[in-house]
Amino acid sequence: MLRARGITIVGSYNVGLFLKGQRLPATGETIVADSFVEGAGGKGSNQAITAAKFGAPTTFVGRIGADSYGRYALDLYRRLGISTDLITVDESTHSGISIILIDSVGRNMISVALGANLHLSPADLDRALPTIKRSFAVGYQLENDLDTVLYGLRISREAGTRTYLDPAPATPLPDNIYPCVDVIKPNETEASTLTGIDVRDAASAAAAGAWFVERGVGAAIVTLGAAGAVLVRDGQSRHYPAPPVQAVDTTGAGDIFSGAFLASLSAGKALDEAIVFANAAAALSTERIGVVESIPEPEAVARLLQARPANWRTTAKPQSSD
To answer: What is the domain class of 7-26+34-318 according to CATH?
Structure first.
């Protein structure tokens, strides 16, 4: 288990309803699923739970509905040792809900009703500011009101706390927010949406990463699913291949990457080490259905890292200025 400094995650909680079948339905088509699983979800919640499971003292800042899903979330956080002091129970709406369809090779389609997540406000972040100031890092995503997220990034920067942004679901961001971000972590689809660069491989991921850095981000990590991740910073790009696994469900792998990465950094690991650790944690998570249920044990990640083959190595090169 990692020994880490405090992490604050500002974000979303959505209960996940998972239906797994042989294939994904076409438009207007009804198909019969083979199995159903219900579990905790939401990008912020997933990241907070992962960080806590990997040993980081974790606080979650968010809103949930006054319903059975919200009560379950609070109970889960308390059992995991996640601070719930800055979670607001919103009587006016429902907890967030995600419906996830998964095919036989792990591809997915997701629809989300954000509910209480959209009511998270700057006032909630003002209340959280003392905790943010004490934190090693604070993580954000884009499943809450965008203006609230932007406000949070700005006050976190002013407080001198490291900031991490997982820009999902991708939406255009103002250029003046990028200097408030120490690390941004889009996947290939999100990077393509935000930069206009068609991200398909390590080279195009490096180009997209450079786009973020040119706008003031400290470091960009573009994740590529089974192809791993590309880091861009200080005029260089580095590709980190992912370990080969037998994926059955890729849902939430990016969130598990984020939580594992932040926990590793807060435990004093170097950026390179944290990416390798997060790659391994995310890869292992795809071998099981669900998100929280698929977070691997720290010992499993350690075993995978110890057994990594010679061809699972990073490659680096200077970032072109073209």
So the answer is: alpha beta
